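Section 5: illustrative case.
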């Protein structure tokens, strides 16, 4: 879904120092890893794919996990499942907060790296735990997933980017060790439409973007998708929540009208409520991306 080109006037870039340091260490640790668990946000699976990840991991096995599956309709989930399959990639869906999908992900990781110990036995070596790493953008749910895989809270998890700052190994069982890594993000966000989606979904630091621009972009994107893919969205999500129709309003206009109608003209409150309601699922199950058409 294309966004209005005016939004590109406010460039979104975010690359805090702890990520730069962690990324260098991560690339070193990847040499020890058997399988990579790439966690993405199910609302924006394409925008939350690191463009350098496949180069970093080379021929290592990769498992793609779309987290927050509760935030999209089952029909959207099926479309993504079919699309990833067409790309030769099996995808797993999870709701890390509730533990949904954790068991099948762990089983897939063990299966994907199963050849490691087969090779060791052939060489007369003792088996060792499978080594997996959890990689993804900030705030996509990596730490919550690790806690579910461990069946106990061992890493801090919070609904904001940048909580995990150090790399560390944690043992799930006698068979599996996990490397918990901070969120990684490209040094330069070339695709500003994707960057805006990261901002809308809170998958990037708040210091990197203007909240009002992000909220306006969300309204415009939702309005556009209601026209083209209304059957995959809740009906009139914004109107149902706030009593204000988006049909004849741009995103910026909508924020101002909403502020006048409900928040005594306070645009900051209007902006914050829209973004918070979307992020918490109060507007319903809304994806910001759908699988690309084959001819695109």
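Designed sequence:
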């Amino acid at each position: 879904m294309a966004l209005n080109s005016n939004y590109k006037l406010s460039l979104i870039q975010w690359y805090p120092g702890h990520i730069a340091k962690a990324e260098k260490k991560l690339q070193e640790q990847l040499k020890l890893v058997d399988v990579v668990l790439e966690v993405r946000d199910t609302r924006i699976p394409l925008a939350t794919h690191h463009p350098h990840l496949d180069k970093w991991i080379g021929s290592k096995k990769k498992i793609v996990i779309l987290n927050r599956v509760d935030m999209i309709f089952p029909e959207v989930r099926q479309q993504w499942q079919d699309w990833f399959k067409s790309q030769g990639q099996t995808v797993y869906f999870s709701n890390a907060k509730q533990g949904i999908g954790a068991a099948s992900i762990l089983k897939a990781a063990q299966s994907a790296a199963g050849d490691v110990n087969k090779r060791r036995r052939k060489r007369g070596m003792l088996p060792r735990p499978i080594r997996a790493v959890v990689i993804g953008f900030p705030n996509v749910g990596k730490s919550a997933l690790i806690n579910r895989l461990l069946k106990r809270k061992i890493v801090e998890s919070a609904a904001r980017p940048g909580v995990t700052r150090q790399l560390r190994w944690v043992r799930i069982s006698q068979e599996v060790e996990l490397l918990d890594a901070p969120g990684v993000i490209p040094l330069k966000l070339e695709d500003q439409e994707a960057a805006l989606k990261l901002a809308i979904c809170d998958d990037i630091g708040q210091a990197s973007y203007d909240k009002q621009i992000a909220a306006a972009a969300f309204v415009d994107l939702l309005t556009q998708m209601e026209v083209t893919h209304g059957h995959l969205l809740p009906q009139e999500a914004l109107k149902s929540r706030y009593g204000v129709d988006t049909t004849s309003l741009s995103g910026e206009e909508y924020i101002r009208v909403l502020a006048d109608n409900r928040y005594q003209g306070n645009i900051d409150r209007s902006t914050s409520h829209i973004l918070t309601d979307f992020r918490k699922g109060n507007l319903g199950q809304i994806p910001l991306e759908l699988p690309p058409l084959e001819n695109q």
